[in-house]
Design goal:
The chain is mainly β. The chain contains 1 helix and 9 strands, in the order H-E-E-E-E-E-E-E-E-E.
């Protein structure tokens, strides 16, 4: 009986804690169909963070053409606190990752821990089809 109550309370807490934050919302005509690469971007000097979405398409022909479309958005809820990337939303702080350095070249790198996930999708609205990037936490 105790284990049943424990499992039920665990699932209830997981359902309440999951949330979404829309960070990029543009008309679908500005972002072509195909593979879109989304990533976090951090400005260490200012302590701010954001999200970028990049579409890259190579058309193989005699003279290959490369089409690149990119959108960036600063997310005010994301910030760097020390070496941690923190998402502050509704009075709740979620650690999305930590800054580290690579072993060989000693370059800064953001190591995500899986608490924050970027998801890109196309949504039909009354304004037409839109491209959205959602931050799930």
């Amino acid at each position: 009986m105790r284990s049943l109550i424990f499992v039920a309370s665990l699932f209830a807490s997981l359902a309440v804690s999951a949330g979404e934050l829309k960070v990029i919302d543009v008309p679908s005509t500005k972002m072509p169909y195909g593979h879109v690469d989304t990533k976090f971007e951090v400005n260490l000097k200012e302590g701010t963070a954001g999200v970028s979405a990049t579409f890259k398409k190579i058309r193989p022909r005699k003279h290959p053409r490369i089409q690149v479309t990119s959108f960036e958005s600063i997310v005010p809820e994301l910030s760097m606190v020390g070496d941690d990337l923190i998402l502050d939303i509704d009075g709740t702080s979620v650690t999305c990752g930590t800054m580290g350095i690579t072993r060989v070249f000693k370059l800064p790198v953001l190591k995500l821990n899986g608490n924050c996930i970027l998801e890109s999708k196309r949504v039909r609205t009354n304004k037409g089809t839109r491209f959205q990037v959602v931050l799930k936490y």
